[in-house]
Amino acid sequence: MASANGIGSIQGKQPLFSFGVISDVQYADIPDGRSFLGTPRYYRHSILVLKRAVQSWNNHQKLKFVLNFGDIVDGFCPKDQSFSTIKKVVSEFDNFNGRVYHMIGNHCLYNLPRKELLPLLKIPNHDEGHAYYDFSPTPNFRFVVLDGYDISAIGWPRDHPKSVEALKILSQRNPNADKNSPSGLVGLGRRYLMFNGGVGKEQLKWLDGILKEATHLKQKVIVCCHLPLDPGATSFAALLWNYDEVMDLIHKYNCVKVCLAGHDHKGGYAIDSHGIHHRVLEAALECPPGTNAFGYVDVYNDGLYLTATDRMSSSKMLFDSDQTCDHENGCTTDPITST
Ligand SMILES: Nc1ccn([C@@H]2O[C@H](COP(=O)(O)O)[C@@H](O)[C@H]2O)c(=O)n1
Ligand SMILES: O=P(O)(O)OC[C@H](O)CO
User: Fold this and answer.
1) For ligand 2, is residue 110 a contact (CB within 6 Å)?
2) N or C: which end of the chain has fewer CB within 10 A?
3) Ligand 2: does its nearest atom lie under 6 Å from the Cβ of 265?
4) What are 279-299's pLDDT values in tens digits?
């Protein structure tokens, strides 16, 4: 399909490399339920979605790695089963014939503290409890994985400075007794919920260094985080607390082309004022039995092409600086194929 944003230029060519994606598996061995707002959640079926994803990624044969966007187990998982359940889901991922890069999400942190969780997820360089890292699958591309719960009221010991900082932010920004309730919060202020978090100063400094180096090396950067970074691509109630600070830093450079996220289960897509694509991936948890939500991304010099399944929409994201939205009704995803 030749389209307004010029995706025709990448179709028909061999990708430089490809990788698999899935988000919000939120498995638990409990009966089906619903979100707070009533959306059905299929806790036992979600691991079947993951199994089918792994099978499909292995059948593809050319995927270089897989990215898991976080929340591999649900907060309702009985706490005496947290460790074994996370191990069970990780071992499903490990059936993939390649490297799996995990992100942490709020539901992971409801189940285990960081010091137990990060080694299980094989988070690189987790010695100080950080879950941010980067890797370069080819010399011209770099993936940056952000830790959206760096400043968070979940996951750190209660008296940890990062937990104290998070509780202070929540007490200033959210007057509700239940800090997960957005009641009375208006517009972008709705993001100040306990199930979200922020990127701390040290991580921002690290990110600045990475982007500086990537610019010097002429690398294109894909930023990944459980929490979305753009208000156009998500419900405000799912945004990273300091998404604006992170994006101001990213916008100082021209190397970041795409930001990928999970957390907001319905998914989303937008192009920001600097031409960066923001794609929030639809959740595996909310797939009714027999349906799927996973995909793989083909990487080209001039764009990313997400081929997705069932409830995850396929997306074309071209890197050109003169970005225009290629969807008639605005910057939403443009479904192209379903496998
Ligand atoms: N509109 C809302 C949404 C959520 N909450 C609180 O957050 C918790 C988690 O929500 P889920 O969507 O993951 O079910 C929920 O238990 C509520 O405490 C809310 O108060 N108002
Ligand atoms: O992580 P959950 O399951 O609490 O859901 C987060 C919401 O989707 C954010 O809007």
Assistant:
1) no
2) N
3) yes
4) 999 999 999 999 999 999 999
